[in-house]
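Here is an idea for our session: we take a single protein and study its fold together. To get us started, please write out a protein record for me. Start from the sequence, derive the backbone structure tokens from it, and show both lines together. Go ahead whenever you are ready, and we will take it from there:
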Amino acid sequence: PDVIIEAQFDDNDAEHGQDHLQDMLTDDIKKLSLDTGEKGKAAGVTGVHRTKQDDGPKVNDPRLLPDEFLQRTAKVVYILEKKHSRAATGFIKLLADRNSELFKRCAMFSPVDHRVPRVYVPLADCPPDFVTKPEAYSQMLFICRIVDWKEDSNFASGQLCKSLGQAGEIEPESEGILTEYGVDFSDFSPEVLECLPQNLPWVISPGELAKRRDLR
């Protein structure tokens, strides 16, 4: 199995350049010999050194290697809980390849949050004049929700939910943030409003003010 040599270098090593560092790594690799009789120890600042033992058997089974020589890997096999709302705020634009079949069916959604992948959205979800006047929507914020992401595709698939308004304005930006984080900002129900004082105008009594902290 391949062995990964991790090199650490300080300012003095940096002055000698990358070629000097690669030479040191090459020397370390030549000195490296893995055997079952001894656990390797990291020494020096240029890599991992092992004492060469010509008479000892070399390790062909990675399960017998010391932990410092192993690069732990894993594979995602199942998603237990989807923490993200799958909704994102961003902009829509036409695909670059105008001759492709996908250009006739989809547009590209680019999220503002770069942690969210770019998304193919159907042209049917876009404004009717988007194809003829895409520049008119270059600064228009949209909400898109990811619905699928195939293993063989570089981009996810989604649906445009609504148009928020011009980028940079407070209300569209705020609504986009609340939607991304799954915050319910709809109007309160009548049952909730009934909990508020009904005899208006309502004021806080002097007794309550005396024992409250005024944050107005």
